[in-house]
Amino acid sequence: MMNLRFALLLVFLWITVGRTDPGPDEEAFLTVPGAESINPSLDADPVLHTIPTDLHELLPHHGWDGNGMSAPKVYYGFVVDLKQEGKNAYFIEDPAMSGSGGTGYIGFYKFSEGWRDIAEFQGPLYRYPSKTGTWPILVYIERGGGGIWAKSYMKFSNRKYQDIAIEHYNRGVISWEKPAAN
Question: How far is CA 82 from CA 63, 70, 139, in A?
């Protein structure tokens, strides 16, 4: 009986622990050829120390109440000039969107009428090259559990990034989905 329990424990550990790191096929899927990563490095300070005053005043009222949460006391995230025109977008961590699939972010950009949220995503973010002053195609990668990933492609439309295609990886099987238009 002890040997059976030990054998079951080993099988359980192999399934839950031994298969959590991406294998070579998953590693290949997790690349975004031709795009650059725009998330901060793990060594960077994730605290946003310099948020424009008008954005900082807006943030507590943005609706952080998902899952019963209130506005964070300290904002974490990263800043990037998406259009490479000298105007930053602020990607701020949303604890209600974060989980085992990665950190959730809400992106904010200042238009002539003020700040708007332009993107919501979970996981690492990549940007394809684009002409200066144009909105680039963005890609984010979510994890759905051991061996299950999604690579979502977003295009800027109607003043917000929208998913235009989702590439799924499910334990070696790749499939595509085209989300419904928003």
Answer: 24, 28, 13
* This prediction's pTM: 0.82
How many domains would you assign to the chain?
1
Q: Is the dihedral of CA 112, 114, 115, 117 positive or negative?
A: negative
Q: Which H or E run includes 26? A: helix 24-29
pLDDT-wise least confident of 17-21, 24-28, 93-97, 134-138: 17-21
Domain for residue 12, yes or no?
no
Does the residue 81 lie in any domain? Answer: yes
Length of the chain, please? 182
| Average pLDDT value over all residues in the chain | 83
How far apart CA 18 and CA 109 sit, in angstroms, is 41
- Phi-psi category of 145—alpha, beta or left, where left has phi over 0 and alpha has psi -120 to 50? left
- What is the spatial distance between Cα 22 and Cα 164, in angstroms, rounded to a whole number? 26
Q: Is 88 helix (H, G, I), strand (E, B) or coil?
A: coil
Q: Which residues of 131-164 are buried (b: 16+ CB within 10 A; e: fewer)?
A: eeeebbbbbbbbbeeebebbbbbbebeeeebebe
